[in-house]
Design a protein that fits this description.
- The chain has 17 helices and 17 strands.
- By secondary structure, it is an alpha/beta fold.
- The protein folds into two domains: 2-255 and 475-489, Rossmann fold (3-Layer(aba) Sandwich); 275-468, 3-Layer(aba) Sandwich (Rossmann fold), CATH 3.40.50.
- It has a nine-stranded mixed β-sheet with strand order 3-4-5-2-1-6-7-10-11, with helices on both faces. A six-stranded parallel β-sheet has the order 14-13-12-15-16-17, sandwiched between helices.
- Helix 13 links the parallel strand 15 (379-382) and strand 16.
Length: 491
């Protein structure tokens, strides 16, 4: 099968979050199964060019129709850790991708409207006719709209689209300029409720909604989050649209790359280990303490790795630090804040706790250090307000670090409470789950985890090893995506 991924990120060359990891990991899994996979990405000025091998111009004169004229683009080609990637570079005064950032501009919806138009135009004029076009998030929501309404009439009627939504909160809201710039034009047609009109603002177009309406299959990144988006609050206004299109909507759990995230082969940790040599993990714990100047005492280390923002339950992350310190545990935090207020709050805490030998707050992101924390910590807290899939809990389990999570989204599909889970056998349970968003719920789960570590160390080790033996690789998600591809190919 010939598959083209169109996305705004692909790790490690373009990575702002989990989307980049998923695009790369899924592409790699599909290729290892013998399928032909190509990726189309924006050519940002700030991406990691050192992660691209053999970058060269592949298509010098791509003219992308735009506002009745055309924008001249170059298409470059290179390999990102074995994946064949095409990078689109527009030569226009808008400087769509020369902003020193991936996202965060006031005209983001137009930047990615152009990218969607350019990606399809490249497929069109280069005579690439993939079986499946796989798009991701609002940034490429316009691709199936343009494909069905324009490109299908110019030799691309047989292409099918799978559209994956990683985060419903950001939907790509814009005005009629989306239509006039791309050649869709007909405002009365696209501003209909059953097409692109936003569900709550009749004067706005919603790119994510367009992706849902026009694609052949839509999925989000865990089965439970699919339920939450359709029936709960986490569809952020798109629940009714998902209900209308429920026959082509589902959830497929993200995988993780065990060639990169595994203590058996991790080059960023000093001591590699397996479930059979679990005792070696203690040496990484000592290395973590040495690096972060924590005292070497008989206490568990609890960690948090991730963004510091409202989505991640930042108020509970803060509470977890002090609960751990007051209950005979150490705490390590690695993360950067997305808002100035939260950033100031945690810098205040960092200065306040600076001389405490049982805590270290690393405010920023350090990929190498994250590996050592996963390997050295005993537990990780993931108290998210919402979590479409979550990767930290599945990574931590591979390293024998027991997750303490809130029961939302993909966390429900991956972490099974040691004491209370009724759907899995005792030998399949792998962590602790709480459900409310208050500190008492978090404390209850942390108390159980710390208590097991202190009073029943053999049972705690058994729980950690059960987590290590869980398989959250791309094997099962790869099967499911291929099943979707086959289904929509023959429709």
């Amino acid at each position: 099968m010939y598959i083209v991924q169109i996305a705004s990120e692909c790790a490690p060359v373009i990575k702002a979050g989990g989307l980049g990891d998923v695009v790369y990991g899924l592409s790699r899994e599909l290729e290892t199964r013998g399928h032909c996979v190509e990726l189309i990405l924006p050519m940002y000025d700030c991406m990691r060019y050192d992660q691209i091998w053999g970058l060269h111009d592949a298509y010098r004169d791509l003219w992308v129709p735009w506002y009745g004229g055309a924008v001249h683009c170059s298409v470059f080609c290179g390999w990102v850790h074995g994946r064949l990637c095409f990078f689109i570079q527009p030569h226009s005064g808008d400087n769509f991708f020369n902003r020193g950032c991936y996202y965060g501009c006031t005209d983001d919806y137009m930047r990615f409207t152009f990218f969607s138009k350019a990606a399809l135009e490249f497929l069109q004029v280069s005579n690439k006719r993939p079986d499946i076009i796989h798009c991701h998030d609002w940034q490429t929501g316009l691709v199936p709209v343009l494909l069905y309404e324009i490109n299908a009439w110019h030799g691309m009627a047989n292409q099918r689209v799978c559209y994956t939504i990683h985060n419903f909160k950001h939907q790509g809201i814009g005005g009629a300029d989306i239509l006039w710039s791309t050649g869709l034009y007909r405002e009365d047609y696209y501003f209909q409720y059953d097409r692109l009109r936003d569900n709550f603002n009749p004067f706005a177009l919603n790119l994510m909604k367009g992706g849902i309406v026009y694609s052949n299959f839509v999925n989000t990144v865990s089965p439970h989050h699919a339920w939450e988006a359709r029936f709960g609050e986490f569809g952020y206004g798109l629940g009714h649209t998902l209900e209308i299109h429920h026959h082509k909507f589902g959830g497929i759990l993200n995988g993780i790359d065990y060639e990169f995230w595994s203590p058996e082969c991790d080059r960023f940790i000093p001591h590699q280990y397996t479930p059979e040599t679990f005792e070696i993990k203690a040496q990484n714990k000592k290395a973590l303490r040495d690096r972060l100047l924590l005292q070497d005492v008989d206490k568990p280390i609890i960690c948090y790795i991730g963004r510091l923002d409202e989505q991640k339950g930042v108020h509970l992350v803060h509470h977890a630090i002090y609960y751990a310190l007051h209950n005979g545990a150490q705490f390590v935090l690695l993360g950067s804040a997305t808002e100035p207020g939260i950033n100031d709050w945690f810098w205040h805490e960092k200065r306040f706790l600076n001389n405490n030998p049982d805590v270290h707050l690393e405010l920023g992101f350090n990929e190498e250090l994250s590996h050592l924390i996963y390997a050295g910590a005993d537990m990780i807290v993931v108290p998210s307000n919402y979590e479409p899939c979550g990767l930290t809990q599945t990574i931590s389990m591979k390293y024998g670090t027991v997750p303490i999570v809130r029961g939302v989204g993909g966390l429900v599909n991956t972490v099974f409470d040691r004491d209370y889970d009724q759907l899995h056998l005792p030998e399949e349970r792998n962590g602790y789950v709480f459900y409310q968003t208050d500190r008492h719920a978090l404390e209850s789960a942390m108390e159980r985890a710390i208590g097991l570590w202190k009073h029943y160390p053999e049972e705690f080790q058994k729980l950690a090893i059960q987590g290590m033996n869980c398989d959250y690789s791309w094997k099962d998600p790869g099967d499911k995506y291929l099943g979707v591809y086959e289904m929509i190919r023959h429709k």
